Amino acid sequence: MHDYRFPQLLDVKQAYQRIMAYIHHTPILTSEAIEKMADCQLYFKCENLQKVGAFKARGATNAILKLPPELKQNGVATHSSGNHAAALARAAFETGTTAYIVMPSNAPAIKKAAVKSYGGKIIECEPNLKARETTLEKVVEETGAAFIPPYDYMDVIEGQATCALEMWDEGIPFDAIITPVGGGGLLAGTALTTHYISPRTEVYGAEPKGADDAQRSFKAKEIIPMENPSTIADGLLTSLGQRNFILISKHVKDILTVTDEEIIAAMRLVFERMKLVIEPSSAVPLAAVLANKGLFRNKKVGIIISGGNVDVSKLPFQ
Amino acid sequence: MHDYRFPQLLDVKQAYQRIMAYIHHTPILTSEAIEKMADCQLYFKCENLQKVGAFKARGATNAILKLPPELKQNGVATHSSGNHAAALARAAFETGTTAYIVMPSNAPAIKKAAVKSYGGKIIECEPNLKARETTLEKVVEETGAAFIPPYDYMDVIEGQATCALEMWDEGIPFDAIITPVGGGGLLAGTALTTHYISPRTEVYGAEPKGADDAQRSFKAKEIIPMENPSTIADGLLTSLGQRNFILISKHVKDILTVTDEEIIAAMRLVFERMKLVIEPSSAVPLAAVLANKGLFRNKKVGIIISGGNVDVSKLPFQ
Questions:
Q1: What single-letter DSSP state applies at residue A108?
Q2: Which candidate in A275, A282, A309 is best for mutational testing of the B interface (most B CBs within 10 A)?
């Protein structure tokens, strides 16, 4: 068992007050054309329009702002080559501290550039998990920086939970809300907030068939890490975190999986019909709705578009 | 001279009340990254997120709703292969009448599909202006449909003017507002509304150097039609309308021009930094701001993103 103290609704509301000056209140957009195809009402929460182009800005900012001053002054550190790295670098810059980001030496130049553009200090390491972890340990030891993990960390989950809080503040009586699930920060936070505000609402996770550890863990009732994930949804390669798994087991209705073909088709729909640039991971929930019409028919369904960081010169529908 | 009666502020407000149930109130979005590059504050009014993916939904809806019932019952007609065609077809469908759209036989399949998806009836003609006009005349004669021109028509200009009305309702004290200019419906409407609400605010038009009839007409103080326009901004090939020219001459500060290279670079910036799908025409105002920093330094500048109808499998930055 565990002895975690999970955030209460008041904690999530306080997190929102804490971070709101540093993040965008993102819009909810709709599309008649896609609704017709899906046979339900769809409300797209556009975190691709969030700072750093992803919901990760919420958790990273909340985590830094909750650090005691004596910890914060030495900076923060993480290992990541994705949206959490850029989000932590920006949040550190905006709140007056330093971010040390351990990145594999083969990380894409565009990801390194994003971290640097926010003043983050990059420490390169060999491209494997062992090297990442030992390099991070060394950085933390040398600098005294506080480690902020990308998802398996309470203040990060609490920050991601503010996204659903904004959704519920719009007054829409969602029957269901679906988010992508990788490490599980967004899904756990969304399920937690929704559990407090509207327990009747069903929260779903959606993930690629080629990285379906969340579905398998959910069914097995224990974490089954992903080995050799393979999918175009590069934001969803990680396995579920401990805290995330507990919350998801408790408050999530089900985990749906889709093929890469379905992801690309849904991604194209959002580009063409909604005029939004989204990364493949963000198309996974819509793909899941379109592949499971019976589950959602005539319901009011909230979909969190998690991010928009994709190389627009290499889109998969060229 | 002319004896046109141009819309008053009350007319624009009434147009907004008339059409608001049929259109989106589009958001204004911002980007720190682009503001840093431009040395000014930028407010992007996102008409790419409008119904049919373009501001044209406003004018077309207003024009149909203002038709007397005896005219409206026979339907509406226009010749266009662009956003006005889809906008008129949708507005006709939503308001319970029929749209007859004369399109050149070589119009892209995607444009025809858009018109058909809204129930519009397509009448094909030879791909030249003469054939378009005679075919339209024939359609109007046979059906009794009312001709709704794409921009040189008062109720269309009045409808486009509601876009700036929404912008001013946000309470932002714009120093300048810039729109693309093709036929001049959006620019004329924006200039008119802004003249009434904030006469100190400077309104600019922006167009491609390869289709610079608005700039030349503006300088010459008479309409100089464009011959053989050549630009990637396919929405801005048309020459200024009469009514549009009069309003623009009176209420617009200046017309700025940019190269196709500048348009493509600005378009890519909006995709990458704002996560928005926009058509090349919509990137023209941002390109003009970046090419004329002295004009806008430290000012609050509103930019209307006019539309998002672009083939996402053939983007110019692949």
A1: -
A2: A275
Q: Which residues in chain B have Cβ-Cβ distances shorter than 8 Å to A315?
A: 312-313, 315, 318
Q: Are residues B133 and B99 in the same domain?
A: yes
Q: Which of A147, A166, A188 represents a domain boundary (last residue)?
A: A147
**Inter-residue contact A82 to A307 (CB < 8 Å):** no
Q: What is the ipTM of this complex?
A: 0.93
Hey, what amino acid is at A10? L
B81 neighbors B50 (Cβ within 8 angstroms): no
pLDDT mean for each 10 residues of chain A (318 residues): 91 98 96 96 98 97 96 94 92 96 87 91 91 94 96 98 98 98 97 98 98 97 93 93 98 98 98 97 98 97 97 90
Contact present, B302 and B174 (Cβ < 8 Å): yes
Q: Are B206 and B298 in a shared domain?
A: yes
Report the alpha-carbon distance of residue B242 to residue B240 in Å, rounded.
7
Contacts of B254 (CB under 8 A, 6+ apart): B202, B204, B205, B218
H-run or E-run covering A248 = helix A242-251
Q: B47 is in which domain, residue-wise?
A: 9-54+153-305
Distance from CA of B25 to the nearest CA of A (A): 11
